[in-house]
Each structure stands twice: as structure tokens, then as C-alpha cells.
Amino acid sequence: MVYYYQMPEISRFFGIIVRMFAEPNVQHNEPHFHVYYQEHSAVYTIEPIGPVTGDLPLRQRRMVEAWAEIHRQELLQDWHSLQNGRLPGKIAPLA
Predict the structure, then answer these.
(1) d(C-alpha 75, C-alpha 83), whole Å
(2) Tens of pLDDT along 11-22?
(3) 8, 20, 44, 85: which could form a disulfide with 24 (CB 3.0–4.6 Å)?
(4) How far, rounded to the nearest angstrom, does the alpha carbon of residue 82 sit from its chain's CA centroid?
């Protein structure tokens, strides 16, 4: 069986890239997103917003957490879209 893996970018701000992982037709953990900043990366849950693994510099961690709190509903919508084989929508960056 061959799986198609994708991790579309859903937002980008202040050098931070936010992506979600999708593996269609396979249940994939609890709702979460991946964050990349320079050589750092982390995974955050959506309900509640919080780090699961990885490490970001303090300033970027605070920005990601503030952004995620503001866009929690959109993150959940994107998660459900990906789990149902649809592409996620873009989410506005932190301004």
C-alpha cells in the first residue's frame, strides 16, 4: 500500500512557517500543527494550544502561541479538511 504524504503551508510570519501534516485515509493523532523557524522546529496541539515536542526560541514560541489562540477555529477547520483529504485554507499571519 502506498500512502501520499503532504504537509501544506498554512501560514508564514516573521520567519515562522506553520504547516499541517496529512496522511489521507489514516487517522493521524490529535489535532496539531508543525512550526519551523530557522533550524528550530516544534509541534503544537490545537486543543489546548500547547507544545508537544521540539523547541523554538522564546520570542517565536510566544508569537506562535498568540497566533494559534487567535486562529484556533481556523486551525481546527484546516485539520478536519486535511483529515478528509481536502487541502487546508491559508490562515492570516500574525500582524
Answers:
(1) 12
(2) 999 999 999 986
(3) 85
(4) 11
